[in-house]
Amino acid sequence: MTAKLLEYPHITPDSISLVHHNWATLPVEYREFDDGNPFRVRCGGRFIAARSGNEGFTLDPESVFEAARILKDDPEIHFLLSGEGVGWAKIKEMHTVTPLPNVTLLERVPDAQLESFLSAADIWIIPSRRNAPGVSVPSRIYNPLAVGRPVIICSEPDGRPPFSFARKKSAGWSRPRSRFDREGDQRRRRRAGRHAGERPSGDTGRVALYWADRIKSISQSHERPARP
């Protein structure tokens, strides 16, 4: 981030202060899975993959929606999406044009319901765009981890502390966005199922296949986190 700020005129190193803002806003304690959780009930109590946050320009929530499109015929997987920002507006637009039966959209959840909301999901998704290091850090990744839920991250490893944290602490799954290639794309399409052809092309499409493939694999193997 410092290097990018210094590209602006009249900005010097002395005029930049670093404020660390990555922390969990909830007490760190494992929350048991509860089939009576109102958010799980709303989603049908199935395996829930969730995404929430301020969907700014450095994030790619569209890839998550496209993963839901790929998996729309899988009755065991449901997507719970919430948020705000320009990306959230795009997700609502996409869902209006093509409503998906396996997607539940929620506006931003009040703080009083945050713990219940975060503990409702089986897994949380962090969809960073390519070349985002140094621009923003998905600091709210720590709240899902605080309630004992794993994360899937697609990002570049350099300059993304949550990426290395998830890998080193075995707190989820992570993959550098730059490592997607055509051969891996074909393998993921086969594993995700015949509906994997219904996706956009390009980088977002490849990442959508990764989400679909990984989420389907986790749901089938029931890799729920054990209580510490």
Largest sheet: 6 strands, parallel
Number of strands: 6
Q: In which range does the helix fraction lie?
A: 25-40%
Q: How many structural units, i.e. domains?
A: 1
- Helix and strand succession? HHEHEHEHEHEHEHH
Which runs of at least 5 residues are low in confidence (pLDDT < 50)? none
Structural Rg: 18 Å
The CATH H-level homologous superfamily = Glycogen Phosphorylase B
Structure description:
This protein has 228 residues and is an alpha/beta fold. It has one domain (51-219): Rossmann fold. Helix content is 36%, strand content 14%. The chain contains 9 helices and 6 strands. It has a 6-stranded parallel β-sheet, sandwiched between helices. β1, α3 and β2 (77-83) form a beta-alpha-beta unit. It starts with a helix and ends in a 7-residue tail after the last helix. The model has no long low-confidence stretch (mean pLDDT 78).
Provide a compact summary of the structure:
The protein is an alpha/beta fold and 228 residues long.
Considering the chains and any ligands shown, give keywords for the structure.
228 residues; alpha/beta; Rossmann fold; 6-stranded parallel sheet; 9 helices; globular
Helix and strand layout, with pairings?
Elements: H1 2-5, H2 38-42, E1 47-51, H3 61-70, E2 77-83, H4 86-97, E3 103-107, H5 114-120, E4 123-127, H6 142-146, E5 151-155, H7 161-168, E6 172-176, H8 182-192, H9 202-221
Parallel strand pairs: 1-2, 1-4, 2-3, 4-5, 5-6
